[in-house]
From TrEMBL:
Residue ranges constituting the Macro domain according to the UniProt record: 1-170
One Pfam family of this chain: Macro
Name of the protein described by the UniProt record: O-acetyl-ADP-ribose deacetylase
Signal peptide (from-to): none
Matching InterPro entries: Macro_dom, Macro_dom-like
Alphabetical list of PANTHER family matching this protein: GANGLIOSIDE INDUCED DIFFERENTIATION ASSOCIATED PROTEIN 2-RELATED, MACRO DOMAIN-CONTAINING PROTEIN
Amino acid sequence: MEIELIEGDITAQSVDAIVNAANSSLLGGGGVDGAIHRKGGPDILAETRKLRAAKYGRGLPVGQAVATTAGRLPAHWVVHTVGPVFSATEDRSELLRACYINSLRVADELGAASVAFPLISAGIYRWPVEDAVRQALTVLRAATPATLRTATLVLYGAETAAIARAVATT
Ligand code: AR6
């Protein structure tokens, strides 16, 4: 699988699946989650409500991933995953890697050829950007998916993109 790093807005990506850094409620929030629901329209929320009712009464657990269609977005699907909140006293990096592993699996099960990720947990959940990139690349570089050909890490803002490029080359 080819891995690309780009600076941009994930809601504008013309890929098969984009990943949403959601919360367990699956009912929307700020950051990339807010942008996806705002630009994708109400169909996405209608589907996540159904998923909550049918399967995730207590919410989607941290590290897991689940797909909906993408409403008005250029992508076909949104894969919703819940990153861990960063902790300075507890190593939660396995849960962060699980977000990438499970999102890749869900996208692959959908038959997607391309998937785009935001930097999960690196915003409101306060994960340090450098390590968030490292965790993401560890999983993406080790992945051997069936249908996916390209994974794009979409970095929001020039500063984050510069840090990510530096991490990727070390
Ligand atoms: N495109 C790409 N990346 C973005 C975009 C965008 N449009 N908007 C923000 N980012 P965050 P988290 C970057 O906070 O830390 C929500 O309320 C952002 O700069 O979106 O996992 C959820 O509902 C950062 O680098 O997600 C949860 O409650 C990265 O995406 C909580 O936030 C992730 O930042 C999840 O927090």
